[in-house]
Amino acid sequence: xxxxxxxxxxxxxxxxxxKYVGDPGFVVSGFNEIHxxxxxxxxxxxxxxxxxxxxxxxxxxxxxxxEVDCPEGKALIFSxxxxxxxxxxxxxxxxxxxxxxxxxxxxxxxEGTVIQPGVFIGNQVNIGKNCIVHANVxxxxxxxxxxxVILHSGTVIGADAFYFKRRSDYWDKLESVGRxxxxxxxxxxxxxxxxxxxxxxxxxxxxxxxxxxxQIGHDTVIGKNCLFAAQVGIAGCVIVEDDVILWGQVxxxxxxxxxxxxxxxxxxxxxxxxxxxxTYFGSPVQEAKDKMRELALLKxxxxxxxxx
Amino acid sequence: xxxxxxxxxxxxxxxxxxKYVGDPGFVVSGFNEIHxxxxxxxxxxxxxxxxxxxxxxxxxxxxxxxEVDCPEGKALIFSxxxxxxxxxxxxxxxxxxxxxxxxxxxxxxxEGTVIQPGVFIGNQVNIGKNCIVHANVxxxxxxxxxxxVILHSGTVIGADAFYFKRRSDYWDKLESVGRxxxxxxxxxxxxxxxxxxxxxxxxxxxxxxxxxxxQIGHDTVIGKNCLFAAQVGIAGCVIVEDDVILWGQVxxxxxxxxxxxxxxxxxxxxxxxxxxxxTYFGSPVQEAKDKMRELALLKxxxxxxxxx
Amino acid sequence: xxxxxxxxxxxxxxxxxxKYVGDPGFVVSGFNEIHxxxxxxxxxxxxxxxxxxxxxxxxxxxxxxxEVDCPEGKALIFSxxxxxxxxxxxxxxxxxxxxxxxxxxxxxxxEGTVIQPGVFIGNQVNIGKNCIVHANVxxxxxxxxxxxVILHSGTVIGADAFYFKRRSDYWDKLESVGRxxxxxxxxxxxxxxxxxxxxxxxxxxxxxxxxxxxQIGHDTVIGKNCLFAAQVGIAGCVIVEDDVILWGQVxxxxxxxxxxxxxxxxxxxxxxxxxxxxTYFGSPVQEAKDKMRELALLKxxxxxxxxx
Lengths: 308, 308, 308
Known about the structure:
Three copies of one chain form a homotrimer. The first copy, chain A, is an alpha/beta fold. Chain A is built from four helices and 34 strands. The first copy, chain A, has helices at residues 9-15, 48-55, 82-93, 288-307, and strands at 2-8, 20-21, 27-31, 41-45, 61-64, 75-78, 108-109, 114-115, 120-121, 126-127, 132-133, 138-139, 144-145, 150-151, 156-157, 164-166, 171-173, 179-182, 187-188, 193-194, 201-204, 209-210, 215-216, 221-222, 227-228, 233-234, 239-240, 245-246, 251-252, 257-258, 263-264, 269-270, 279-281, 286-287. In chain A, the strands form five sheets. In chain A, strands 8-11-14-19-22-25-28-31-33-34 form a ten-stranded mixed β-sheet, with helices on one face. In chain A, a hairpin with a 4-residue loop joins β16 (164-166) and β17. The first copy, chain A, starts with a strand and ends with a helix. Chains in contact: A-B, A-C, B-C.
């Protein structure tokens, strides 16, 4: 999440009444979760396993629960509970605002775009030209939709990320302050869900076509001209490169990359990154030709055992 | 389903013009399908395989298609078609009522709760305090929603159970007269469906978090602080104990129990009860470590066979 | 798609300024994609692999990108891009029209049918008697719904087919001009999607019952009294005969037939036609008894190998 205008380290630390290391006038220009940081960002880290990643990341300010040495050119803010304080801080800059009407007065809708009845368009939403938004679609606040986009009925753009931290006796929610961005020429089927980023953006790339009942998790970035069949589910923080085809009911776990032009057959499960330009099948996924050989062998197995 | 006030055996039998065994003034205080019965309930049974279960159940009155001996302290009502007459009777006490407005006049909504545009809230619905109900959610009649609940767009609470009896040339519907209950601090993602109970309650336990596109069947009871990823589907009459984690696209068949703290990896299929405290994978599911071993063996199999 | 009144070959060819072979007054009475053609139809073919199929099909007029001999009793129209011209032609006869109100003035709704709040009913929709259409359902233009049908909340009837042709650098959409037809006594759960046909009809047969989150692709024809559990997904151009039972999360690929009375267990994947009257399991599917034997063997395999 970019801030509309920058704040100083002193101001930010003051909001949570925290000690800090760095120039009081050091600039904080955004908030981002560690997967999405850019220079100027404040990020948080609360587990020793990720200290190093956070300190060496692009983030300029690190909200951390240990008094470590400050890397050069960066700033640190100390907190006994960085998750709690990060959620508190992001909420100061973007919070849920209720809407009074089906189409918010602060939404911008381009020329030639048709909004069918029953559509909800939240605050600060921006929709381009010549789109069709079919009946009963819901578009959450701050979503960005390009030109020539078609959204079918029942689809939900920009709902909250599914991102919780386990506390001793409850799940603590990381407030989502990112956005969902649908680029030009995208078509999204009925009853799909494209979650917003927790702090960065979820992106559906130009020309990509989604069938019905598809789930795209927070901060996932889909390339151009991809084609996903019905009931595909993709978790958060996934990168899908251009021209990828996923057939029906494929499931994709978080934090991985699917290479350009990969084709994944129906019902496959992807748990690790896969290279582009190949065809895959199975759960967990293998190259399709290997999986097919394995399945053929399995069928012949009784006879093979008998012959021994 | 509890009746608002009790009826007598004579009154109930009279409604379907049926013979009965028992004190005419014997009290019928509710209707329940055999999986959910409590003392005071009338239940039905129409298959010899289940006579014994019904007669020995907690139900006080049994609607049955055979003239068996009446167990002590109970009552019997005889019918040539107990299913038909049970549906007829429940319909006398709770039937579908159409609504005139998006928010029924008989719904109660707590302080601090935000209802976004396009939300439907049916008759007799009760929603607690400080909830957010996002745009285009639908809440059927008689649903109960606690405090601090978040329901995302497109989600449907309390639709009818998927429960049909096979007749010679059609599927006969068991009318749903139960409820959907969402306890405090639950968050339910976009495009989820939580069916009502056929006669008892479907329950999502306190603090549980559901991602998008999740299906919870009738009369299923989910414990506290569970976490289900997107596109999980759970059939009817399932018990999920506290702290269970189901990853994406897991499928769960009806009438089983998932033990406390179980973790089930993505795309697994659960056809029998599984113990708590373990991690599972596969369809049908096994302990994950066994399944992983099996998958590794399968990959090595061509070489093993060659070596023989 | 049937035309309201017939056009001549000369008129149709004139619309795309194309050369043709045949009597100028030859009748074109409809448009259909090759899977669905009837006598009188115009269809298109643009790949040599399918020339023969198109020329020998029931279609009377073939829009083709090669100057072949005209079969007797038929007509040909020549185009350098039959896909583009077919889309252009169908759009002349049926195009998307925006709606001004939740229930279109051109929709017909039968006696005794209840339309709950938030329901969208498009242009020229026809709904029969004694139906219940629950809140926030969306019914696209030209859909046909019979008597005694129940549609649960969030369900979408008649969205566009997911049918794109790969061009060098984008996906080109085949405009959907078919319909979705829901026959009498059908019940469709919450958050289901029944796509319209691309040029023919998608049909849900009389008495069939669908649970929640079910996807039915374009031009798929489901028989009578089928029962599909939650999250089943069926692609386009599938034929499901009567009395078929599909359990939860089953996936079905396009262009195949499931025989009468087949039962398919949960999470199975169907990639080829399967015969009726049997029970199936697995992905890809096998007869359930074979698959179960295979799974049992797999579990015993470590011991078998050890014994060798």
